[in-house]
Amino acid sequence: MVQLAHDGLELWYATPDAPAPNETTEQREGVSVTVGVRPANPSNAVSVRYRVDGRRPIETVSAPLVANDFQRRTQYFRAMFPTFWSGETVEYLPVVSCESRRAPDPSTASTFPTGFRLCEPTVRQRPSSPAANPIEPRAEFAARLEYLSHVRVQLTREPELFGETPAGFVINWYPLSGTFDGPALHARLVRGGEHQTVIRKDGIGTLSVSSTIETHDRALIALRYTATVDFGEDWGTWLPARNWPPALPVRSQPLMLTSDPKYRWLNRIHGLGIGEARLREYLYTYDLYAVR
User: Fold this and answer.
1) pTM score of the predicted model
2) Which CATH class is domain 145-291?
3) Are the CB atoms for 267 and 284 separated by under 8 Å?
4) In this structure, are residues 214 and 222 in contact, taking their beta carbons and an 8 Å threshold?
5) How confident is the model at residue 144 (pLDDT cuts 50, 70, 90)?
6) What is the distance between the alpha carbons of residues 157 and 179, in angstroms, rounded to a whole number?
7) Where are the domains of the chain?
């Protein structure tokens, strides 16, 4: 049984009324977490932060409301984890927010007190002929990721909140400085450029970035990318008040252009960025890969 409380909010899970995996071995798909919350409130929103094998990035999955117990002034929410195609252990922590209040407390919110093991993956035998199982999915084009660099971007402390527009909720959060440090690329971010996010009703933000980086040997590279940022379904309760959560997952598709002979190979790659925005630290950090 796990019980946590803060700011007048209480949540619990891994109990008979709120079942959740805890120190158990689970299948790789269909794993869910039920969370009890008190007091009941229409503004309550629950999400579950988790990580696989202790690695970053930290992922978040929303937990929709599934039941009300009016006599006990209690609500129940349930989150469904995605299929775990890889990994051996999963650690997680549910978080509840209601307007400007959140539970658990900030120090606990950065930890993962609960976890479970994953069973061994099932090895599927390929059918002898396509006609034997015509609906069996097959990967036709294998992908390989080549690690290029670790990126850290320091953001301004005061973003521009334009609010709700016909295109969605618009926020500009400009970078102050940044570094690229890795086996293939050592560079710094040149201050300026565009860094705008448009947030949809479901909490998915589309990030548009256009900036310049300068390598350690003074080559200039134009960097452009789009990205998705998962603000969570409860984003409307905390973002306008600037009550930033610890971290938001970000996935980006960088493209680079340069005329410098030493870095022309960057013109030919499709980039992939895996990271997170740590808004309380005014930091955006990610690992940059080339998709081969």
Assistant:
1) 0.58
2) mainly beta
3) no
4) no
5) confident
6) 18
7) 2-118, 145-291
